[in-house]
Structures are given as C-alpha cells and as structure tokens.
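In the previous chapter we treated chains in isolation. Here, by contrast, the input contains two separate entities that must be folded as one system, with a combined length of 570 residues.
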Amino acid sequence: MPNFDTGHLFLTTLAPIKKGTTLDDRGVKVSHEQKIRTTLAILPTALQSPATEEIGINSPFARNLRTHLCRFMVLDDVVFNGRVKQDAIVTALSGEDPIHPRPVDQLTNSFLLFVADIDAVTEDGAPLPAKLSKAQQDEVRDAYARRLWETMEAEICEIYENCEGFDTVKDADGFADYLRRCQVETTMPFNDYWLNPPNLHQLPVKGMAAVALVPLLVALLGAIGWFTGSVPLLTWIFGWTPGWTFAGGLIATALTVWGAYAYTLRNGEKPMPPGEYGDLPSVLKSLYLQQKFADFAVRMQGKSNAEIHAAFGDFIAETQPENKMAPTQVPGVISIQRKNAIFEQ
Amino acid sequence: MSNIAGKAYAMNVVTPSNPKITWINRLIFMVARGLPQTLGGLLGLSIIHFARWIIVKRDQWPDLGQGKQNLKNDYMIFCSNFNGTWDQYIDAFSDGIPNGLNLFWYTATKYPASIPITPFKNYITYNQIYTDYYYNATPGAAQRDIKNGMQVYDTLRDLARRHSEESPEEFAHSYRQALLKVQDCMGEPGYAPVASLDTENADINRKPFVRRAEKELFARPKSAV
C-alpha cells in the first residue's frame, strides 16, 4: 500500500459529486458541480503573489502544520483518446463494420479529486515515521481529517455538501469516515526531500533471475530428453523421465516467476525512508534559518573572530535551531520578510 | 482555477488503460522503486516536490450511494507538483528520462512515447485536467530552495554545537568553513515569475469575492449555524 512513503501520507480521495441543481449564495440555481467550482474559486489561496498578498487572507490549509501541498480538481468525466486502431485483416475476419462506433467510457457522475501531500503524523510537529502499519496509516488519515475539520469546517462543508454521502457528516469523526470511504490507493508515490541519497530497498535482480533459471533449465533438459530418449544427467542420477522432467520444470518455472512477481510488488511497496528534515515544520524552519543566516553572513563580513563568536551566540539564541516549531516561517507565505510571516512561540 | 501556487505547478493527467494489462504498469512502478538507478533520473531532475501515479481500476471508483461506474478501462491519474513552466517540465522529462516516461505510461492507451516531443506534448495537453484549487505551504521556494534550506539548517545545528565547545578562534574557522560549504544554499525566497497576465488579473479580480466569502460563507462552522 504505497499511500505511505518517505514519512508522508500521499492521500488521494475521489468524492462523487451530486447530480442535479442547488442554489448558490446569491440564490441562483446552479449545478452542484458548478457550485463546487465556484466555491473553490473563492477559497483563499496561500499568500503567494502580489495580488493574493493584497487580498491578505491566507489559505485555510495554512492553519495546520501537516499539509505541504494539496489540490482539488473536478473530474467531470474520464478522458477519451479516440478510437483504438484495429488491424484491417482482423476486422475483416471478425465481420465487424468499422462504421459503427465502439463504446466510450463515461462516468455516471462527476468526481471531486482531493490530493494532499501530508506529514504522516497524528500531531503537528511529530517526527516522521519510517514505518506504519495499514491501521496506523488509517489513523494518520483520520487524524488529518479531524484536524481539517477543526480548522476549516465551514470551508469543508461548503465544498463537500455538493458531494454524495456527505449529508450525514456532522462532526470531525464523520468527516474522517467520509474521507476513508472516498480514498483510493496511491500506486506510485514520489518525494525527494533527502539531503543524502537514501538506502532504498534494492531488488536482487540477478539473484531472482538465477533462481528462475534453474527450473527453466530443468524444463529445457526435459525437452531435450524427448528427442534423445533420456534426460542428460538427471535420468542417470535420479532416473527422471523426459515428460515428467519437462512438465515439472515448466510448473516450477511458472511458480518461480509468480513468486518473483509477488516479491517485486512487496519489495516496491516497502516505504522509502523519511528525510531528516522532510516534515513541514522542519521545511519551514529550514527556510526561516536560510534567510536569517544569509543576513547574518552579510553582517559578519570583516568581523573579528571574537565578534563572530559573540554574534553567533546571539544568533542561535534568537533563531533556536534546535526548536523546529518556533521561531519559524508560517505556512503559506513567500518569505519571512512579509507581514506576520514569523511564528514566535 | 489555477494550476499555479507560487513556484509550484499542479499537473493532473488522466490516461485510460486496458484492464488486461494494467498490472504490468503496477509491476513497472514497483520494479522502479526497487532499482535506485531507474529512480535516479527522476531524482536528478530536482524540480519535483511531490508526485504520484494512481491506478484506479474500473471497479474501484468510490460508490457512496450514487451507483457503480460501468467502465471498459482502468484509469491512471498522474499528479505532480513541480517548479517551472509546463513546457520546461515536459521538456525536462522528455530529455532527461525519455524511457522512464515510456515505462511509467507503458499501458496508457494511444500513448505516443516521449520522443518525438510534439505528439507527446499534444497527448499531455489532451489528457490534462486543470486544477480548481491549489495550496502550497512554501510558495516562495522551489524544491531546490527547500533542499538548500535543509542544508543550511543541518550546517547551523552543527555550528551551534561547535559554538559551545570551541574557542572564538576555532569557532571562527569552523564558521568560515561552514559558510564556504553552504554559500550556494543561501537563495532568497521570492515570487515566482508571473506565468501569465490572465493569472495575475484573475487574482486581482477575485479580491472582492474572496473577502466577501471570508466574511459570509466561511465565517462560521456549519455545526454552529
């Protein structure tokens, strides 16, 4: 279950959007899909540009310290890439007339995709775990859903009230259960916040190939035995007959290939290790320190050894590198130069 | 609606896949995760914060009472958070890991391969779904800025330890050595280049609507109404 990787939860949910109409905030009749799109269009983003800084309202997702990035996307239907080409001879033999259209996939209703890259923790600022069982991953997802409900309930309701099954959601636990029902598995996660290349779960390709080759070789010997009357070596040592050797070799080969396939899947599903500073509080602290230290380095130009030593003491007292939670840059701002962009304990 | 949040771009690509062969794609992903040399190309791009590939089998679409989907195909949804423009990203992928891309979209119906690039860009264009809402906790920093910040953080923790153990002369030497090590990690966060005037104007035009929504629509939890 690669929903969990590098200490992060790659949460993916698909919520079916209701069909039919509703009223928007001006009392105009609109489709539920349109209502969601409108709501998402006026949901504050991060303070990420001169215009959004002028608006001055940070995203509700900036109220938690777990969300690195997230997005909503309305999927009104699946994509159709056109008719798949078919060989003319096959078409002629099958008697199919190409003039008739083939079935085209269509969703019965639109879906709201919510994708979030979050720290796999149940408390803001907790260290990223290297391993989590399936139950613990569910616990992390539920804790995140509850955190969202606590910090942005109004926004969540405004969006999800247009989705099927949300009408029964009344509290944080209900929302956690709702996200559980909407979750789909992330097949292949990717994140690169490592300072040094991590130790990955190397697949022993040569060893697997060698193991698979042994039964294949036995099957081959069995095939040779059919022509020569006896299986080289094996008949002499074990008294094996060609037919049974061939059949046994083939079955063993198939089982080995299946085993290699299952092993590869299991190996690939093992989570990659978290980066030492891969959690959001550490990322924000890194950016805070980066900016503070750049200014410090400028100030220290031409200073004596004693002055540098004394000034650095003041610097670590002010910036507290060992405390990742504060002082630090707040989420959803460009830099610490902006208004209210530093969180002091 | 915007695919851009600060220096990050949110790409969503939905591609159909024959259900009989989707398992091959899952196998390819898992092999890639077990062979660091194949992931190396992806890591080497250094422009992606987070990305994911999601295979939704045709019977796995959530049913919350609206009924099951009746689909002939499985679908793969690709979601990426990258830095730079759309063209730069596709170019970097196509030039940097052309066969890696072909493997990751191995079972996608009518996938044209990553080289030549024009049909590939057309394919992405036709299969891309625009993002309706995008949040980025670190909009002023690209992925490399973040990793540079981490390098500074790591160095400062070491310097802080040395500060309590070394004489002023020894520490000044350590400080200068550390500064030399992280001198190329001191980039200043800032705005992303304006992707388009339309995007900029859309934000400006949203101002009264966002402010009104904050006062009226999102002011109180529903449970308190």
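Chain B touches chain A through 122 residues (CB under 8 Å). The radius of gyration of chain B is 23 Å. Compare these points with the single-chain example from earlier in the chapter.
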